[in-house]
Amino acid sequence: MGGYILKRLVSAIPVLLGITVIVFLIMALIPGDPATAILGSYATPENVAKLNADLGLDKPLVQQYFIWLGNMLTGDFGTSFALNRPVLDEVMERFGATLILAGTAFVLCSLLGVAAGVVSAANQYGAADKAITFTVLLGISIPSFFLGMMMILIFSVQLRWFPVSGMWPIYGARDVWALLDHLILPASALAVVATGVIARLSRSAMLEVLRQDFIRTARAKGVRERGVIWRHALRAAMVSIIPVLGIQAGFVLSGAVYIEIVFQWPGIGRMLVDAILKRDILLVQGGVVVVAACYVMFNIAVDVGQALLDPRIKT
Amino acid sequence: MKFLTLLARNRLALGGGVVMALVVLLALVTPILPLADPDVTDTARRFLPPFSEGALLGTDHLGRDLLSRLLWGTRLSLAVGFAAAISAATIGAAIGIVAGYFGGWLDNVVMRGVDMLMAFPYILLALAIVAALGPGLMNALIAVAAVNVPFFARNIRGITVGLAHREFVDAARLSGLSDTRIILSEVLPNVVPVIVIAMSTTVGWMILETAGLSFLGLGSQPPQADLGSMLGEARAALISHPHTSIVPGAMILIVVMSINLLGDGVRDALDPRLKSGALSRPRAATLVERKGPVPASEGRGLLEVQDLRTEFHVGPRTYRAVGGVSLHVEQGECLGIIGESGSGKSVTALSVMGLVASPPGVITGGAVRVEGEDMIGTPYRRLRDLRGRKVAYIFQDPLATLHPLYRVGDQLVEAIRAHRPIGRAEGRAKAIELLEAVRIPNAAKRISDYPHELSGGMRQRIGIAMALANDPDVIIADEPTTALDVTVQAQILSLLDDLRRSRGLAIVFITHDFGVVAQLCDRVAVMYAGRIVEEGPTASILETPCHPYTARLMACVPELGEGRRRLEAIPGLPPAVDKLPPGCAFADRCAKARAECRQGEIALSRAGPRAVRCLYPETPVMEAAQ
Ligand code: SF4
């Protein structure tokens, strides 16, 4: 298993490099004088000169890339001109908040989605199946930002169950309970879409497995139907559900951008949107690279989980 | 045309299609409708509620007419969403076709790039593109299209790779057509349905995404507004004037939902594998719809099957897989059921414990008695209790029939635990004991193996051990040796024979191989087209077969073990069990057939231990019985 993990980590290196190349190339697309464009409204002569020196913007493209990459590898992502603060510090702080939000949503949608899919498959064409199928359809059709706004209207404004926005109370203790209180609404809003997708795919994965011969064997042994569904079928279906969870993690992370805006959550998505609107390009670059790298690592973890779950995978 | 009728049959898709058509129509006629100018501000009329005079849906924070803005916004959102979907599909399909068709290093480079792009959470890529190009509706469109290109490229490439090596493409190549011509005339028509499916399932998503970017302020810029930016602007007044948010939000929901409904319908209609009903899950026990009266017990044998009828209901067709089969087996006896594939022998066996997949299987008549108790009418709980405890099964392919992800020891313990609680240590001891009983060497180690780590013969021994786990009275073995090679087959047969003698098991042995029957079975029943055509003691039948079919079966019997030769040696095919001819089902293949054979039901005539269903038997049954 150790060897397998190592192998996957090594195979991630070209992907990570590829990500930096793509981000770099996109930024190179910027028309006009790059330093002025990157700095946007912060393009004072001093700043332009500083950035040109930092990134070697007068040098050939390939050389620029390696300078930029080398800087990042030593932890120097440059300075945000809008915030006047090292990019890495800002990114790390914001990314932490996003991880809390997206992580909670991911756990929620994985549990609920798989459970709904299993129940739906086990009662195919029954009332529960139809109800779940319809809810799933609603879930994948509603824009998460609209859903978030409606949740604020209903649960915060009308019912007053949860605070309207933010991550912490303005006054009072910053403890787990305060965090949970602020987290429940945005995390649920964020989880809805992915729950729908996961439920759909879990349902079809389960239906696929339930037709297999080993399910008949379990029934022939006299295993109770609950055991057939949750122990035999789900265990086998997980092999195809896990990769879906990996993909959905990317969608949850993406959806977090909207939810952070709606709920004023101080995460990296909101930071990126602000940075784009202020044309704070270095901050965008840094944020994108860090989040993408973490996502790649997360997917390796998913692969390893998959290998642990399926003894047939050669490790 | 067929596609359209299929689509129309799906009511949800039809509903989605109608709503979608209405929205598109509204968007198209918006410029000629008598609407207020969507961009004229009137601060005196800010935040009018819906149904106000002169403003059906009210006004927004600048006093602009919401209805007008909604329709213009919808128009814009639809245009941008569809434009993004079409560009992504076109560019992605082009990349996918080129990579898949030419293959080689080009394919490699392109697919690496695609993998790279897909390693991003899509929004990061979209944000990076918008960051580089600057906010604006056109740039948002480019970003959304760009992040979806890899998805299309990968899908289409997969299909193209499959096509590029097909005969018709090779033929076109040999006839000297240029690559461009081949792609346009041979490849493209075949990938179009895939492109359509991919588009129909992603266009809703792309409308959502462009609306999302606008919502973030990165898409359409004021005063121009699509649905997303309307929602974004309304957010500030969410709490005080929620209607300004609800109006555009609900519209996005309606649009995307109807597209998704329609998209699902398109996918189902174009992709036959996903058509509804194709993926029905089998129920816990076979459906029972007995029409006639339940036959009274005749008290024969440990297991008694009486006039069993099992059908498969597939759409409008009914396949009579088992058409009135009666059997019985005594303690310590081995009964063989022999027949070609499709003769109904396996379905008969599976019907005993309600294991025929349902849908489509339905038991429509007869009874199955275990110690006199009818299994067909018994409630599921009782049936489950008897499965594995009274009657156990051994199946054909042990790789498919063992759970691939559990250790074999755990699967054995589970079989026991289904019927009585058993502790860890005791379970382990019992599992080892069972493996030793089926002569698996090194049992203590083998229990922690996974099925894929064992050889075929070992796996089948596990299957047998699992059947023995609860000391059943009857074992039903459904072609347990067919998937194995000759020497292993002989070992498994002698193992079963020993177990039967030492444990007094009743065995029902399903096979297509007379050699196996000769070695193992006391009695044999020959099945053809869902019915028993001959029955009797093995030795007697082997000596003087009565039914022409039995005689033919025996004539092409291979030596024991060379089961590969199967029964195809008989000319002709068994009749399809959904249109059985009147009279003898074997008539079309029978050399002795006469007109009377096709006229009516032919009864099973008995004499002593022998029985045959034939008007002109090879040997008269009375004679054979002596
Ligand atoms: S009944 Fe007639 S057709 Fe059928 S097997 Fe006998 S002889 Fe042949």
From TrEMBL, chain A:
<keyword id="KW-1003">Cell membrane</keyword>
<dbReference type="GO" id="GO:0005886">
    <property type="term" value="C:plasma membrane"/>
</dbReference>
<feature type="transmembrane region" description="Helical">
    <location>
        <begin position="95"/>
        <end position="119"/>
    </location>
</feature>
<feature type="transmembrane region" description="Helical">
    <location>
        <begin position="12"/>
        <end position="30"/>
    </location>
</feature>
<feature type="domain" description="ABC transmembrane type-1">
    <location>
        <begin position="95"/>
        <end position="301"/>
    </location>
</feature>
<dbReference type="Pfam" id="PF19300">
    <property type="entry name" value="BPD_transp_1_N"/>
</dbReference>
<dbReference type="Pfam" id="PF00528">
    <property type="entry name" value="BPD_transp_1"/>
</dbReference>
<comment type="similarity">
    <text>Belongs to the binding-protein-dependent transport system permease family.</text>
</comment>
<dbReference type="GO" id="GO:0055085">
    <property type="term" value="P:transmembrane transport"/>
</dbReference>
<feature type="transmembrane region" description="Helical">
    <location>
        <begin position="176"/>
        <end position="201"/>
    </location>
</feature>
<feature type="transmembrane region" description="Helical">
    <location>
        <begin position="131"/>
        <end position="156"/>
    </location>
</feature>
<keyword id="KW-0472">Membrane</keyword>
<dbReference type="InterPro" id="IPR045621">
    <property type="entry name" value="BPD_transp_1_N"/>
</dbReference>
<keyword id="KW-1133">Transmembrane helix</keyword>
<protein>
    <submittedName>
        <fullName>Peptide/nickel transport system permease protein</fullName>
    </submittedName>
</protein>
<keyword id="KW-0813">Transport</keyword>
<feature type="transmembrane region" description="Helical">
    <location>
        <begin position="281"/>
        <end position="302"/>
    </location>
</feature>
<keyword id="KW-0812">Transmembrane</keyword>
<dbReference type="InterPro" id="IPR000515">
    <property type="entry name" value="MetI-like"/>
</dbReference>
<dbReference type="InterPro" id="IPR035906">
    <property type="entry name" value="MetI-like_sf"/>
</dbReference>
<feature type="transmembrane region" description="Helical">
    <location>
        <begin position="236"/>
        <end position="261"/>
    </location>
</feature>
TrEMBL record, chain B:
<dbReference type="InterPro" id="IPR017871">
    <property type="entry name" value="ABC_transporter-like_CS"/>
</dbReference>
<dbReference type="GO" id="GO:0016887">
    <property type="term" value="F:ATP hydrolysis activity"/>
</dbReference>
<dbReference type="GO" id="GO:0005886">
    <property type="term" value="C:plasma membrane"/>
</dbReference>
<keyword id="KW-0547">Nucleotide-binding</keyword>
<keyword id="KW-0472">Membrane</keyword>
<feature type="domain" description="ABC transmembrane type-1">
    <location>
        <begin position="74"/>
        <end position="263"/>
    </location>
</feature>
<comment type="similarity">
    <text>Belongs to the ABC transporter superfamily.</text>
</comment>
<dbReference type="Pfam" id="PF00528">
    <property type="entry name" value="BPD_transp_1"/>
</dbReference>
<keyword id="KW-0812">Transmembrane</keyword>
<dbReference type="InterPro" id="IPR003593">
    <property type="entry name" value="AAA+_ATPase"/>
</dbReference>
<dbReference type="InterPro" id="IPR050388">
    <property type="entry name" value="ABC_Ni/Peptide_Import"/>
</dbReference>
<feature type="transmembrane region" description="Helical">
    <location>
        <begin position="122"/>
        <end position="147"/>
    </location>
</feature>
<dbReference type="InterPro" id="IPR027417">
    <property type="entry name" value="P-loop_NTPase"/>
</dbReference>
<feature type="domain" description="ABC transporter">
    <location>
        <begin position="303"/>
        <end position="554"/>
    </location>
</feature>
<dbReference type="InterPro" id="IPR003439">
    <property type="entry name" value="ABC_transporter-like_ATP-bd"/>
</dbReference>
<dbReference type="InterPro" id="IPR000515">
    <property type="entry name" value="MetI-like"/>
</dbReference>
<feature type="transmembrane region" description="Helical">
    <location>
        <begin position="12"/>
        <end position="36"/>
    </location>
</feature>
<comment type="similarity">
    <text>Belongs to the binding-protein-dependent transport system permease family.</text>
</comment>
<keyword id="KW-0067">ATP-binding</keyword>
<dbReference type="GO" id="GO:0055085">
    <property type="term" value="P:transmembrane transport"/>
</dbReference>
<keyword id="KW-0813">Transport</keyword>
<protein>
    <submittedName>
        <fullName>Peptide/nickel transport system permease protein</fullName>
    </submittedName>
</protein>
